[in-house]
Amino acid sequence: QEAYLFKQEKIFIDFKNDYHLIIAPNMDEIETNKESGLKQFSPMVLLKRLKKFKLNLFDIVKKLHQEFLHSIGLTDVPVDSIKRWHQKFDLENLPEISES
Predict the structure, then answer these.
(1) What is the pTM of this model?
(2) Fewest C-beta in 10 Å: which of 27, 36, 49, 64?
(3) What pLDDT, in 10s, does the model give residues 26-43?
(4) Quick one: three-class SS letters along 10-60?
């Protein structure tokens, strides 16, 4: 599930009816506070979101590493069996992550 929700809304600003991109945090996974009835980011929720973000980044790097291995002729190495990066895999100079 995505961390943020993206939608376009028609908003009247400066005497113009125009569409604007609205970005809001996805609050579906966040529990409601029993006292106030409001959803709030607790430290636990923030840590969970950070962990998910890091795992997603790691998956992207693993995919790039797998593509590198294929480019040098190592096609029979399963992703799950890799324990370290290939010595010629330039971890510091990976391409920028494309926007979703």
Answers:
(1) 0.65
(2) 36
(3) 877 777 777 777 777 778
(4) EEEECCEEEEEEEEEECCCCCCECCCCCCECCCHHHHHHHHHHHHHHHHHH
